[in-house]
Amino acid sequence: MYAITIPEPGGPEALVWAEVPDPVPGDGEVLVEVAAGAVNRADLLQRQGFYNPPPGASDIPGLECSGRIVALGAGVSGWSVGDEVCALLSGGGYAQKVAVPAGQLLPVPENTDLVTAAALPEVTSTVWSNVFMIAHLRPGETFLVHGGSSGIGTMAIQLAKAIGAKVAVTAGSKEKLDYCAELGADILINYREQDFVEEIKRATDGAGADVILDNMGAKYLDRNVQALATNGRLAIIGMQGGIQGELNIAMLLNKRGAITATSLRARPLAEKAAIVAAVREHIWPLIDSGRVRPIVDRTLPMSDAAQAHRVLEESGHIGKVLLTVE
What we know:
Elements: E1 2-5, E2 16-19, E3 29-38, H1 41-48, E4 64-72, E5 84-88, E6 97-101, E7 105-107, H2 121-134, E8 142-145, H3 151-162, E9 166-171, H4 174-183, E10 187-190, H5 196-203, E11 209-214, H6 221-227, E12 228-236, H7 249-254, E13 258-261, H8 269-282, H9 284-289, E14 296-301, H10 305-314, E15 320-324
Parallel strand pairs: 8-9, 8-11, 9-10, 11-12, 12-13, 14-15
Antiparallel strand pairs: 1-2, 3-4, 3-6, 3-15, 4-5, 5-7
C-alpha cells in the first residue's frame, strides 16, 4: 500500500507518499481500507519530531480515519467485512489501509457520507471525554472554548449548546467568530483585539466561566484561572502556547477550581474503548438527528498531505481538513 512517511523530521515537505508494507490486523483488530483521514495539530508535532507515537503504534501519522472493513482479526465480534466505519487511531491514518482495535471503531452516522465521517472520531472523543466525562459541563453553565473555529472548537460549541450550556469562544477574526455564532456561540471574543478574561467577566456579571477547554497551555494558564468561576474547571488539551507557565495557586484555591490535562493518543486501549462507547451513546444520536454536524473546511488528496499541514499552520481554516485516498 501507499502511505505518508516521515523519513526525517522537518517542515511540511518532510511528508513523503511512499510504498510501505500492508498492516496486518492482530487479535481484536480489524483492517480498514481508508477512504479519508483527518489532519490534527498532533500530526504537525509528529512531523517536526516532537510527538512520537506510543510504543507499538504505527509510525505513519494520522489519528482518525473513515473507510470500509476489509478483514477481521481473531476475536472480533459485532463488525463485518464491508461495514462502513470511522475510527480513533494511535497512528496510521495517513495511509490506504490501517489496522484498528475494534473498540475504537464507530459506525458512519446516518446522513453523513463516508469521507466526511473522518472528521468525527478525534474531535468527538476529545470533547466528550474532557468537557463532559471529566469537567462535567452541566445545563445552564457557562463554557469557554479557545479556538472556537477549529475542529475541536466547532464540535465543542455544538455539543455544549445541545446540553443547554451558554457558550463563549475565542477566535482571531470576524469571519471565524461569525461562523461560531452560526453554530450557536453566545459570547464572541476576538483574542487579537479583546481580553478574554474581561469579556467573560462582563458577559457573566463577574462570575466567570464554569468550564474552559484550552488548547494553548502555558500562555493562557494564568488568565484561564482568572477567568474561571467559583468551582470552575479548566481542561487543558494542547500546548500551542508553550509547556511551562506560572500558576497562581492562591487564586485557584479561592475559586475552589480544578485543572486537568489529558491526551487521547497514549491512553490504554480499555480507556479509549470506553470513551468511544460513550461517544457512540451520547453524540451519535445528535449527529443522526442533525442537531450536531461535522464541520469540514476542505478536502485534499492524501498524497498532498504537505499542503494540508501548511493550511493548519497558517490557521486560516474553519473546522477540519481532510485527506482523501485516491
